[in-house]
TrEMBL record:
Superkingdom assignment: Bacteria
GO-annotated cellular components: cytoplasm
Domain annotation Galactose-1-phosphate uridyl transferase C-terminal: ranges: 182-342
EC number(s) from the headed UniProt entry: 2.7.7.12
Organism encoding this protein: Martelella mediterranea
Binding site for Zn(2+): 49, 52, 111, 162
The protein, known as: Galactose-1-phosphate uridylyltransferase
Cofactor(s) needed for function: Zn(2+)
Domain annotation Galactose-1-phosphate uridyl transferase N-terminal: ranges: 48-174
Pathway recorded for this protein: Carbohydrate metabolism; galactose metabolism
Cofactor note: Binds 1 zinc ion per subunit.
Length: 344
């Protein structure tokens, strides 16, 4: 725990042993420096990919011949159920063992796809897998929070180009979830409605930062966005977590994710890197009616497929600054075609 930031951080030794296939060639690659961003090769089941159907993972288990999604416990989990729960405290020095469950979700048996290249109906299968995992992990007695996320591209540290995401479910709430819980609860106590629903109403009225909307979801650039092309996806009605979505809303979320990621790729005509994830109500047994489920997209690219934003200097030590306004970032993507550049 940091006594100045009042935030916790994790030390995960097993993560250093991960297989890195940054070159997309089915073999381990450890490198530093500039990481190229380019469209994936048209491969179906490359030899050596630990996530493709029928291939053997590094732990010796063979993947099934799955047709849509495939979920398994992470072979290099940062959190495990048998982690020791010791507590250490010596003045300003504090530490506590954290337990949990880490899983990998393969989005497709196709090695050459991304969310941007997948059909909406196939993305629905991904959404269904997210929902099922959230529900399953949510009833685990030692889990208080389930973080669903995807790191897309080598620039974001993705260790395998096969389309996949992760879930880290933990005994305690992570720092960002604590922050969002605190602010949303304070607003809900004062105004009697979810903060992000009130914010969405204001954004829809202004219509200055809206990228896309359908019957169930809105894709927008947050007024407070820090990264050049940061984006948020919000449901139009009060949805605390994924399992509250109807079948129609799952389809609408899949459509929103497709529209957003296609525009990302079209911006610089590249497989656009990002980290994305859903913040949902904690699964600690409390109702958390203050919560509204957002999806956050944090992409690093700034001016081209190889020029990224660096959070350094004053931004690291003081506070972040933007290189373009949220409205400019919105318009740059509104001007793009809705069909993926590789399919146009």
């Amino acid at each position: 725990m940091g006594p100045i930031s009042n935030g916790w951080f994790a030390t995960c030794h097993k993560r250093r042993k991960r297989f890195f296939d940054l070159a997309g060639k089915g073999r381990s690659t450890f490198s530093s420096g500039r990481v190229p961003v380019k469209p994936l090769p048209k491969l179906t089941i490359p030899f050596g990919c630990f996530l493709c159907p029928g291939n053997t993972r590094i732990n010796g288990e063979t993947n099934p011949d799955y047709e849509h999604t495939f979920v398994f416990d992470n072979d290099f989990a940062a959190l495990t159920e048998d982690s020791p729960k010791q507590v250490f405290e010596d003045g300003l020095l504090k530490a506590e063992g954290e337990s949990g469950i880490c899983r990998v979700i393969c989005f497709s048996p196709r090695h050459d796809l991304t969310l941007a290249l997948m059909d909406v109906d196939d993305i629905v299968h991904v959404v269904d897998a997210w929902v099922a995992q959230y529900e399953e992990l949510g009833i685990h007695p030692d889990i208080s929070y389930a973080q669903i996320f995807e790191n897309r591209g080598a620039m974001m540290g993705c260790s395998n180009p096969h389309p996949h995401g992760q879930i880290w479910a933990s005994r305690h709430l992570p720092n960002e979830a604590i922050k969002e819980s605190t602010t949303q609860l304070a607003y809900h106590d004062e105004h009697g409605k979810p903060l992000l629903l009130a914010y969405l109403e204001q954004e829809l009225a202004l219509d200055e930062r809206i990228l896309f909307q359908n019957e169930g979801f809105v894709v927008l650039v947050p007024y407070w966005a820090v990264w050049p092309f940061e984006t948020m996806v919000l449901p139009k009605r009060h949805i605390r977590s994924m399992e509250e979505m109807t079948a129609d809303e799952r389809l609408q979320l899949a459509e929103a994710l497709s529209k957003l990621t296609i525009r990302y790729d079209n911006l610089f005509k590249t497989s656009f890197p990002y980290s994305m994830g859903f913040h949902q109500r904690p699964v600690d047994g409390e109702p958390h009616d203050e919560w509204q489920m957002p999806a956050h997209f944090y992409p690093p690219l700034l001016r081209s497929a190889t020029v990224k934003k660096f959070m350094v200097g004053f931004e690291l030590l003081g506070s972040p600054q933007r290189d373009l306004t949220p409205e400019q970032a919105t318009q740059k993507r509104l001007d793009l075609p809705e069909t993926h550049y590789l399919k146009g």
